[in-house]
Amino acid sequence: MRKYIVTGLLIWVPLVITIWVLNLIVTTMDQTLQLLPERWHPHTFFGRDIPGVGVVLTLVVLVITGLLARNIIGERLVVVWESMLGRIPIVRSIYSSVKQVSDTILSPNGQAFRKALLVQYPRAGSWTIAFQTGTPAAEIRRRLVDSDMVSVYVPTTPNPTSGFFLMLPRAEVVELEMSVDEALKYVVSMGTVAPGDRDVAGGAGAPPAPALPDRSSGPS
């Protein structure tokens, strides 16, 4: 009996959670219909609300906004808009922080979360998945003994939206062949959903672990 219950849970739990997440996304996007006059709402034409219409409207707004912002006039309007927001005390702090994070993560030219890494954390000999987010700031690099450092984000399991920000020597991280999506699935599943094996250059198997400095002796 127990194995049948577990099998049923393995089938229904992912399905229910997927439906719940999709419903949350669609319901949230449908709120964009509030931007339209009441006479343009679906229930005015069809006598009832139609789920998903807000998703289409959201995509249309995003596409139009992107098209307008890519030309010269649109770029100037964005500069003026950001300048206005930058003069409002509380809004300025929130907007600038969110914009910096979104520019880093969503920008096509950004390097955030472009590579999956293998790092030793929380101690030497204990390995975990991390994601490269860039390099330390210039001031931090000047104050570090080893200037060749990388900034990494170590996610927690099973919730990867929380984690730890670390700066590690580049020689102590191992770049993985797996994609960021595969690495995220591996983290969220707590290691139960392993990505497909790949042959690395020079032979099959994982890349050799980087040599670590001897930490057994204290400072002389």
Quick recap:
The protein is 44% helix and 15% strand. Helix 1 crosses helix 3. It has seven helices and seven strands; from the N terminus they run H-H-H-H-H-E-E-H-E-E-E-H-E-E.
Structural class: alpha+beta
Q: Count the DSSP helices.
A: 7
SSE string: HHHHHEEHEEEHEE
Q: Quote the average pLDDT.
A: 80
Low-confidence segments, given as residue ranges, are 200-209, 212-220
Shape: flat
Number of DSSP E strands: 7
Q: Measured on Cα atoms, how large is the radius of gyration?
A: 24 Å
Query: Biggest sheet: strands, sense, closure?
Result: 5 strands, antiparallel
Percent of residues in helices comes to 40-55%
Determine the strand fraction and express it as a percent band. 15-25%
Quaternary status: single chain
Strand numbers in spatial order across the main sheet: 4-3-2-1-5
Q: What does this protein structure show overall?
A:
With 220 residues, the chain is of the alpha+beta class. The protein has two domains: 2-106, no CATH class; 115-198. 44% of the residues lie in helices and 15% in strands. It contains seven helices and seven strands, in the order H-H-H-H-H-E-E-H-E-E-E-H-E-E. It has helices spanning 2-29, 42-46, 53-69, 72-85, 89-106, 138-143, 180-188, and strands at residues 115-120, 127-134, 149-155, 163-169, 174-175, 199-200, 203-204. Strand 1 and strand 2 form a beta hairpin. The radius of gyration is 24 Å and the shape is flat. Mean pLDDT is 80; it is low at 200-209 and 212-220.
